[in-house]
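Title: Comparing notes on inverse folding

I've been comparing how different people in this forum approach sequence design from structure. To keep things fair, I'm posting one structure and asking everyone to reply with a full sequence. Here's the target:
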């Protein structure tokens, strides 16, 4: 009986000795996400009636209607980019690489706003398309290899499955199996 109680006491003490680093890291991540509304509404602190912002450190001149409008656009791109980057760097799933596509999209949009480019949104897809052509097949290949290991499918079976004629409904069902 004493041995059982000893083991029980040991497991209880082991549970209490959890590593505090993951908790601190998780707390920092929660804090970074929680402050996003404050960061987003920071654009309201900029003047609404001028196109030039002068401080003792720098001067910003914009072609937008006002400095406030300029920062509204900038913050509107920075916040989703910031949250996507947090998600990308903290995600432990195999598919997290696909998050690079929206990250690149927001980065190009932010770059266009900072440079005040007029037609960047029209060209953005041409910059992101090569990234998509590499990432989407790579992520799908990772998915296929993982599911191959998990389900134990033979590659010969996989190739035969690709060559069979299927209805559109069957193809959709196969995507979610």
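Reply #1:
Here's my take.
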């Amino acid at each position: 009986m004493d041995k059982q109680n000893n083991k029980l006491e040991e497991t209880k003490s082991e549970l209490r000795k959890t590593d505090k680093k993951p908790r601190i890291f998780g707390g920092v991540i929660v804090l970074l996400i929680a402050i996003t509304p404050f960061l987003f509404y920071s654009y309201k602190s900029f003047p609404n009636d001028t196109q030039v912002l002068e401080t003792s450190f720098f001067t910003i001149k914009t072609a937008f209607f006002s400095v406030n409008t300029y920062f509204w656009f900038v913050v509107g791109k920075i916040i989703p980019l910031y949250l996507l980057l947090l998600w990308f760097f903290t995600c432990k799933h195999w598919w997290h690489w696909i998050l690079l596509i929206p990250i690149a999209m927001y980065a190009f949009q932010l770059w266009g706003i900072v440079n005040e480019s007029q037609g960047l949104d029209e060209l953005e897809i041409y910059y992101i398309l090569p990234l998509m052509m590499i990432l989407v097949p790579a992520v799908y290949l990772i998915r296929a290899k993982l599911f191959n290991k998990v389900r134990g499918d033979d590659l010969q079976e996989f190739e035969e499955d690709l060559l069979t004629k299927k209805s559109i409904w069957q193809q959709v069902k196969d995507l979610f199996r």
